[in-house]
Amino acid sequence: MKSVYLLPLLLVLVQGNSETEKEWWETTIFYQIYPRSFMDSDGDGIGDLNGITSKLEYLKEIGVGATWLSPMFSSPMYDFGYDIADFYDVHHEYGTMEDFERLIAKANELDIKIILDLVPNHGSNESEWFDKALQGDEKYYDYFVWEDGVVDENGDMQPPNNWLSVFRKSAWEYREEVGKYYLHQFVIGQPDFNYRNPDVVEEMKNVIRFWFDKGVAGFRIDAIAHLFEVDKEDFGGKYPDEPISGNNLDDPLNYGYLNHIYTTDQQETYDMVYQWRDVYEEYKAKDDFSRVMMVEIYASPQKTMKYFGEGDRIGAHMPFNFALISDVNGESTAAEIKYAVDKFLTFKPLDKLANWVTGNHDNNRVASRYSPKIVDGMNMLVLLLPGVAVTYMGEEIGMVDGYVSWEDTVDPSGCNTDDPINYWQASRDPERTPFQWSSEKNAGFSTADKTWLPVAEGYENLNVEVQRDVERSHLNVYKALAQLRSEPAFRYGRYESVALNGDVFAFRRWYNGENYVILVNFRDESYTIDLSYFENVNGELEVVLTSIQSPKNNGDMLNASAVEIVGSESFVVKVKA
Ligand SMILES: *[C@@H]1O[C@H](CO)[C@@H](O)[C@H](O)[C@H]1NC(C)=O
Ligand SMILES: *[C@@H]1O[C@H](CO)[C@@H](O)[C@H](O)[C@H]1NC(C)=O
Ligand SMILES: [Ca+2]
Ligand SMILES: [Ca+2]
User: Fold this and answer.
1) Whose CA is nearest to atom 7 of ligand 1?
2) To 5 degrees, how large is the angle CA 354–CA 357–CA 361?
3) pLDDT by residue (tens digit) across 549-571?
4) Which one of 48, 83, 222, 242 is the catalytic residue?
5) Cβ(546)–Cβ(531) under 8 Å?
6) Does residue 18 come out as left (phi exceeding 0), alpha (psi in the -120 to 50 range) or beta?
7) Ligand nearest the Cα atom of residue 539
């Protein structure tokens, strides 16, 4: 009787969780590579494509199935590749198009997807397009955003309005050649494109097509919020001043001084993302392969979710979820962590997936923002919460921010402060120091005498080679997490979470009788915890994975009503049925 009753119920559960419908990008782990800092193959102190190719097996080893590369396009490097001079070519320091094709071929062999970074908002002031614009070529002149200056009471020419660059100071730069200012929301070397020009729209779609034809599996889209500015025709033909935000009142050159209502989050920007998705769908219609679109967006949940699509328009697969970067840090309470974790899940459309990002090339490393002791706990969140996991290179071994002196600082965000004391707060160099492969010279990253950024101190003990050989290492925890992640409870299972007290955050994943609880203690206090708070968590719990400093061992049995957790410990338990 009983089995007759259970069978239809099981079928309903399986279908309800769409077990058969998962696509490659929904279950894989995405790994961000910053090419300049990953692996240098020719000893010039700068990472390159052949370096990446030589290390693709490492991605396989740690369970990663896709990598997104920060820009490798030709660039004068005023913003380290985010100022692109030729969207259709490889930067010479990183290699050649043949090197890129070899990278793709090797990645295909290993079944690793390659995602590129699309930087649609701006080009380079040292590009053929910009040169042509300066020479009066009408087609390319219209690729950029130009505006007349304003003559002040002393007869001096001033920028058209008060708009500020993300990297400080005016967002306008004068060019004598044309007698006008051009807009650059980022550095002077990054002139914004004019998306009100259909040629620009078509050009960027061609960039997408070009790299799809080369075999890339999608794009991470940079600085999307800045794509469109208001239409000046709606303001009598002149771009209006932005209002003062009330923040950074003592520092009017700081980007935060203004409220960016005319230069970010314009409705047309969402529409452009949907248009790019149409290009994706053109390709999918041909080969039935889903290429993925991730967008870089630091905004309210409401704005963030619009990138998924609106009405019958579809957009990105993954507007990045930066809650664990922007909303919380090592000081946060477990309740604040719970709120940050639940936020994306709460606001996302029901039929879309969440994604988890704890680091990237623009933010201090997890070990530095939280604590080196929380590295495994944060990786447990990224890899075991419901949705897509994204890891910034080095987070799997718990790399820390490197110290980069004022003399060695190269990031424009640091340099533009002109402040040899406080530059480090703005600089993104610390999270970009070379990847730590081994205890050898330059952490095995390069044989050069000087690397483009110094290698972080302590690499002799914190590197891949050392961690491979130690049973309890961040690297081995990460690999075990990548394995565990493929269990049905994590792939298809449901989710609930709780702040057990001020310091301990826990969540549960369950599916078809498999039932796991993950605990992360964000502080140095020890606690005894009653996990029977969770439905169906009682009796005996088996430890299946622990952070490296945990006193527990895999296979240990715990009493669900009285679980000991020591300071900064994280672990995963499985409920014995
Ligand atoms: C391009 O902009 C950079 C600043 O980002 C500046 O140093 C450089 O001189 C500019 N190049 C030209 C040709 O104007
Ligand atoms: C589990 O812990 C609870 C609370 O301390 C206790 O009452 C119970 O007897 C324990 N169960 C076992 C099997 O030890
Ligand atoms: Ca090199
Ligand atoms: Ca723009």
Assistant:
1) 189
2) 145
3) 999 999 999 999 999 999 999 99
4) 222
5) no
6) left
7) 2
**Residue type present at position 42:** D
**CATH number belonging to domain 23-121+199-227+264-477:** 3.20.20.80
Q: Taking a C-beta distance cutoff of 8 angstroms, is the pair 519, 505 a contact?
A: yes
Q: Which stretch of DSSP H or E encloses residue 423? A: helix 423-426
Q: Cα(83)–Cα(73) distance, rounded to whole angstroms?
A: 9
**Which of 537, 561, 576 to mutate to test ligand 2, by most ligand atoms within 8 A of the CB atom?**
561
- pLDDT at site 2: 43
Minimal-distance CA residue to ligand 2 atom 14? 559
CB 183 within 8 A of CB 144: yes
What are 36-81's pLDDT values in tens digits?
999 999 999 999 999 999 999 999 999 999 999 999 999 999 999 9
Rounded CA gap, 146 and 237, in Å?
Answer: 12
Calculate how far, in angstroms, residue 482's C-alpha sits from the geometric centre of ligand 4: 38
Nearest-atom index, ligand 2, CA of 559: 1
Expressed in angstroms and rounded, the spacing between residue 504 Cα and the centre of ligand 2 is 21
Which stretches within 322-374 are classed as H helix? Answer: 323-326, 334-347, 366-369
- The residue whose CA is least distant from atom 9 of ligand 1 is 189
Residue 75 CA to residue 562 CA, distance in Å, equals: 58
The preferred substitution site among 188, 190, 410, 411 for testing ligand 1, maximizing ligand atoms within 8 Å of CB, is 188
The size of the chain, in residues, is: 577
Q: Tell me, in angstroms, the distance from the centre of ligand 4 to residue 453's CA.
A: 30
516, 489 contact by CB (below 8 A): yes
Residue of 517, 513, 518, 520 lying closest to 488 (CA atoms): 513
Instruction: Say which ligand is closest to the CA of 167.
Output: 1
Model pTM above 0.85: yes
- Among this protein's residues, is 222 annotated catalytic? yes
Count other C-beta atoms under 10 Å from residue 512's C-beta. 14
Task: Say whether 128 is catalytic.
Answer: no
Task: Classify strands 355-357 and 388-392 as parallel, antiparallel or unpaired.
Answer: parallel
Give the DSSP H or E segment for 557.
strand 557-559
Select from 351, 277, 345 the least CA-distant residue to 307: 277
Q: Counting ligands in written order, which one lies closest to the CA of residue 532? A: 2
| DSSP 8-state symbol, 146 | E
Mutate which of 528, 531, 532, 559 to test ligand 2's pocket (most atoms within 8 Å of Cβ)? 559
CA distance 464 to 442: 13
Count of alpha carbons within 13 angstroms of residue 109, beta-carbon side: 10
Cβ within 8 Å of residue 15, ≥6 positions away: none
Atom of ligand 1 lying closest to residue 188 CA: 5
Range 470-489 average pLDDT: 98
Q: Whose CA is nearest to atom 5 of ligand 2?
A: 562
Between CA 518 and CA 544 the distance in angstroms is 10
